[in-house]
């Protein structure tokens, strides 16, 4: 697979990314061997960097040379795209429909505005005292998946280090999809338990986070085994 970002897409990216306010740092965790989609993932993120007007920065880490950085952030697969200090991550190439969700997430993180209701944010910060690892299983052709992804990402933004939002490309990572018995996407698992099929509303998602939180987690919060 060789991805090329054409001029039409780049023009749209420039227009959309002009909404950014603050800089956003993106990390790509890659490998030089045995990674079919790593180079294409780097190509995608480089296009975002190039069309952001200097607002997006990219740091690439390679598994063969920088295993300690993988360990620091709890990264267990390549490629992984991470932002917000690793609390928002895309496991697998963020292509197709998921690219839209990634761009939307970057803009919201840049603005520091999740779009979640004030009541939900207040309850989240008051009642979520433990930690939750969220896995949103998606595919590139699913039109509803970016909605679930951005919702989870925005809870990670507001949770201030208590939620990891991991958007898992289910075709590349079929073992994770199989683990949860996924037959439709988006599917959402919290701390290793499948909780939603489809896109939940804010209140339902918040209640599930509170239900599944685990106070004994240490940082970084790692994928449930």
Q: Main traits of this protein?
A:
8-stranded mixed sheet, alpha/beta, 20% strand, single chain, globular, 225 residues, 8 strands, Glutaredoxin, 8 helices
Description:
By secondary structure, this protein is of the alpha/beta class. It has a single domain, classed as Glutaredoxin. Helix content is 39%, strand content 20%. Strands 2-1-3-4-6-5-7-8 form an eight-stranded mixed β-sheet. Strand 5, helix 6 and strand 6 form a beta-alpha-beta unit. Helix 4 runs parallel beside helix 6 and helix 5 runs parallel beside helix 8. The longest helix is centred in the middle third of the chain and has 15 residues. It starts with 6 loop residues before the first helix and ends in a 13-residue tail after the last helix. 40% of the residues are buried. The mean pLDDT is 96.
Concise synopsis of the structure shown:
The protein has 225 residues and is of the alpha/beta class.
Total helical elements: 8
Find the count of extended strands (DSSP E, 2+ residues): 8
Largest sheet: 8 strands, mixed
Please list the strands of the largest sheet in the order they lie side by side.
Answer: 2-1-3-4-6-5-7-8
Order of helices and strands: HEHEHEEHHEHEHEEH
């Amino acid at each position: 697979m060789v991805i090329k970002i054409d001029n039409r897409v780049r023009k749209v990216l420039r227009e959309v990314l002009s909404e950014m306010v603050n800089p956003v740092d993106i990390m790509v965790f890659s490998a030089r061997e045995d990674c079919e989609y790593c180079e294409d993932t780097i190509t995608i993120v480089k296009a975002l960097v190039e069309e952001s007007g200097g607002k997006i920065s990219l740091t690439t880490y390679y598994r063969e040379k920088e295993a300690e950085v993988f360990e620091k952030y709890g990264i267990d697969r390549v490629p992984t795209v991470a932002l917000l200090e690793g609390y928002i991550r895309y496991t697998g190439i963020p292509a197709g429909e998921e690219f839209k969700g990634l761009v939307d997430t970057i803009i919201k993180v840049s603005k520091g505005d999740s779009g979640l209701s004030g009541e939900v944010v207040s309850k989240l910060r008051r009642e979520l005292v433990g930690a939750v690892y969220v896995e949103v299983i998606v595919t590139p052709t699913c039109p509803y998946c970016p909605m679930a992804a951005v919702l989870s990402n925005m809870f990670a933004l507001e949770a201030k280090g208590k939620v990891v939002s991991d958007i898992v490309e289910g075709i590349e990572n079929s073992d994770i999809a199989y683990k949860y018995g996924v037959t439709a996407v988006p599917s959402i698992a919290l701390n290793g338990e499948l909780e939603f099929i489809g896109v939940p509303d804010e209140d339902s998602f918040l209640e599930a986070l509170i239900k599944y939180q685990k106070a004994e987690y240490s940082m970084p919060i790692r994928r449930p085994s």
